[in-house]
Amino acid sequence: RIPQETIRRLALYLRSLRKLSQQNLTIVSSSQITNHLNVTSDQFRKDLSYFGSLGKPGVGYRVDELIEHLEKILGVDSERRIILAGVGKLGSALLAYPGFLNFNFRIVAAFDNDPVKIGKKREGIRIEDISRMREVVSRFGVRLAILAVPAESAQSVAEKLVECGIRGILNFAPVNLDLSQKVYVLDVDMGTELMALTYFSRRVLL
Amino acid sequence: RIPQETIRRLALYLRSLRKLSQQNLTIVSSSQITNHLNVTSDQFRKDLSYFGSLGKPGVGYRVDELIEHLEKILGVDSERRIILAGVGKLGSALLAYPGFLNFNFRIVAAFDNDPVKIGKKREGIRIEDISRMREVVSRFGVRLAILAVPAESAQSVAEKLVECGIRGILNFAPVNLDLSQKVYVLDVDMGTELMALTYFSRRVLL
Ligand SMILES: NC(=O)c1ccc[n+]([C@@H]2O[C@H](COP(=O)([O-])OP(=O)(O)OC[C@H]3O[C@@H](n4cnc5c(N)ncnc54)[C@H](O)[C@@H]3O)[C@@H](O)[C@H]2O)c1
Ligand SMILES: NC(=O)c1ccc[n+]([C@@H]2O[C@H](COP(=O)([O-])OP(=O)(O)OC[C@H]3O[C@@H](n4cnc5c(N)ncnc54)[C@H](O)[C@@H]3O)[C@@H](O)[C@H]2O)c1
Residues with beta carbon inside 6 Å of ligand 2? Predict the structure, then answer.
């Protein structure tokens, strides 16, 4: 099993390589790729070693080749459709975020249970009633969902997502979801991030 | 140096322990604390071992004692003031989020450069002009900031934050900030999270 941290770093390498390609660089060293990232060249080589050998020591890495390789590993070489559950303050901001398209993610449908919101269009997407989720998910063949409902309804909405065939949930609600092995949950907990920030910022060089 | 992942897990243990304390449990086992978290009891014991010995093998952990200990390590035993730079779609959602208070974080000031927004009140906070940041930061004695400005202004605004004495930045802009050693930056990159989700959700049990 490949560690989650390795996959997150691959995504950062992909972002760096895309920038280097915009600067018309064709062959780069590992330190050019990991510049500005808190990553050593050793860690970079170790991360890539999980996926076969790339680049030649002393010669460097071909930017276009490495981009293509990473896009395939990360599955962003083709469009990924996602659905959004909960179109509140955070959900609306996520719906309007153009950055997801940079990595081939497109929110194709959004669901809520607030009668005032259902039927309205936001960013070109009609807000659907949560009861219509199964029908819409199977029509679009979606496997991924963003969960942005309040903490008290997160577990029940997440169970509905799994029933509809969703296999990956990006969870913003500050609760630990208890779901079957059939689904992978990634939590984005901003409270946890701020605590980590507090801890490490107190230890920087003064 | 303690790994970032360990500190994130401590924050998750604290959240679990608070729930257990609400259920009036006074002594718990490590597996009760790590239940619903993708963490083994071994990992839990290893994480705690960085901070001295806690709990007795076979007897378990005192919930109130462990909560107090973790709150002190994570620095959430006293109020942490934070400022917000960028009050757009995401910044507004963060400003309205009550969850930060659960861990003693309070947004005390918000800054923007849009003349239409400056002077308006949102969630009880007056949006200030970014040029007044130094004065407000030193008045409140703030060390932490959330950065929610567009990617193209993130580097320059981050540099201003460091000049004002900010020592920790939670960065939502999808760029690698190049800052002095005096500041700790934690990136929340939702594109990276979605890529990791794509990778792992394709490998769950089918
Ligand atoms: N706002 C933030 O910056 C922020 C930050 C971190 C975490 N969160 C978390 O993200 C989640 C959303 O936060 P928010 O600020 O957007 O809240 P919000 O109350 O503004 O939005 C929640 C939305 O979910 C809908 N909803 C409620 N129950 C539902 C159900 N059973 N089925 C479908 N839709 C339902 C509501 O109608 C509403 O539109 C919360 O769990 C919150 O804790 C928010
Ligand atoms: N919206 C999302 O869900 C989302 C998700 C992931 C990442 N992000 C990132 O978060 C950041 C904010 O996103 P958003 O959707 O809220 O954008 P937005 O355009 O709605 O908000 C940006 C705000 O920053 C202000 N601003 C611009 N330049 C500034 C400067 N120099 N000084 C002070 N304020 C300045 C603008 O006036 C605006 O209010 C972006 O970098 C974006 O890539 C957003």
Answer: A 93-94, 96-97, 99; B 85-91, 111-114, 117, 130, 148-151, 153, 157, 172-174, 190
